[in-house]
Amino acid sequence: MDAITSQRRTRTASMPCLKITEVESIPLRIGFKAPHKIAVGPFRPTIDILLVRVHTDEGITGIGETQAWRRHGSSETIASLRTAIHDYFAPLLLGKSPFDIAAIMPKLEETIYHSYYAQAGIADALIDIQGKALGVPAFAMLGGKCRDMISMCGLLSIKPTLDETLNDANRLFGEGYRTFVIKTDSNVDSNVRAVRAVREKLGDDVHIRIDSNSGMRFDTALEMLQRLEPFRLQGAEQLLEIWDLDGTAELARRTSIPLIADEQIANDHDLIGVIRKRAAFAFQSKVAKNGGLWYSRKLWQIADGAGMLVCPGNHPCTSIATASVAHLATAWQSPLLEGPFAFGLNALVDDVVVTPMKVENAAVRAPEGPGLGLALDEDKIEKLRIDR
Ligand SMILES: [Mg+2]
Questions:
Q1: CA of 49 to the centre of ligand 1 (A)
Q2: 133 CA distance to ligand 1 middle (Å)
Q3: Mean pLDDT lowest among 18-27, 39-48, 316-325, 337-346
Q4: Phi and psi at residue 159, in whole multiples of 5°?
Q5: What are the tens digits of pLDDT across the range 44-82?
Q6: How far is ligand 1, taken at its centre, from the CA of residue 165, in Å?
Q7: Å from CA of 341 to ligand 1 middle
Q8: How far does residue 174's CA lie from ligand 1's centre (Å)?
Q9: Distance CA 107, CA 126 (A)
Q10: What gap in Å lies between CA 37 and CA 194, rounded to an integer?
Q11: Whole-number Å distance between alpha carbons of 20 and 59
């Protein structure tokens, strides 16, 4: 045997040889500590979460998470997510190697167009398996460590009174937050009052952004931006409906406040549309909205190449989707806007892993264990699942 053949054989022998044997999904409902309110929809007392567990013939299982968010950009329910995963995705996954993610994920998209919310749980479970099989954390497979801690913004959801908003801002400031995102609605007067009050309360050394979650019309958004010009906002996020890219680009030209795109961007085509129109200076990603860690990374790279900043976000979620973003951010070579990707850790009443992730001094560290670095707490799962 010559040296090259010997080397090839050694390499082949070291590649883990796993096959997917089963795809499991676990629907959960977790309460908010305080009802969550954004511009669209009523106060929300709970969030529906779907965990995905992918099993292999070697006994290694991977876990991923998605959510049935049911607001702009998301039409899924727990039932529709499970139908996509079990009836359409599972037959394509069985017998495949979890390492073949680049071949697998486009097949899922081909099978159900625009199914990023369902794909997210699968993609993250596959990456979790890869890391566990190799014995390395996900961030190591994504390029290694560019930062130890990922800074967070504090999220101020819409409250019935301004005093409640200020109390939340004060509490978050005490916990170490220095960037604040105020959720705003279509009421320009109350939005301006909230921004002014938070600026006066916390001073000029904090960053303040707003997020309207697609809930404004063009004229009211323009009026609001003009009235907010004196308050040195770091950004204004997703003011208009997701279809109104031209309107968003027009707003960007008529204000000095930088705009951020969120619900508007599900995939690379959406992102490139925003880039071409210069409609935002940053985009917020979410594990579920953007098809999991695998596809989110592609979007981050496109944004980076276009000179946009990335803001790591998430719907309210458990440690699992939080860890997905934390691994990606840990291995990210460029600056990041402080995002709300881990706000579910403190906003929800419960978690589903043995060692929940923690926000410490307004920052989060990616788990160091193999894969996503988390183990499910089976007792918690039994308590929170809604299919029994
Ligand atoms: Mg947002």
A1: 18
A2: 35
A3: 39-48
A4: -120, 155
A5: 899 999 999 999 999 999 999 999 988 888 889 999 999
A6: 18
A7: 10
A8: 24
A9: 14
A10: 15
A11: 10
Residue 296 buriedness (CB in 10 A; 0-12 / 13-18 / 19+)? buried
Cα of 243 vs centre of ligand 1, distance in Å, is: 15
Between the CA of 284 and the centroid of ligand 1 the distance, in Å, is: 7
**24 CB burial (10 A radius; 0-12, 13-18, 19+):** middle
385 Cα–ligand 1 center, Å: 27
Strands 154-156 and 179-183: parallel
Write out pLDDT tens, residues 339-380.
999 999 999 999 999 999 999 999 999 999 999 999 999 999
CA 275 to centroid of ligand 1, rounded, Å: 18
Helix or strand holding residue 64 (H, E):
strand 61-67
Give the integer Cα–Cα distance in Å for 337 and 310: 6
38 CA to centre of ligand 1 in angstroms:
9
Domains in the chain, CATH or no CATH each = 9-135 (3.30.390.10), 140-384 (3.20.20.120)
What per-residue string of b and e applies to 39-52 under the rule 16 or more CB within 10 Å gives b?
beeeebebbbbbbb
146 CA from centroid of ligand 1 (Å): 25
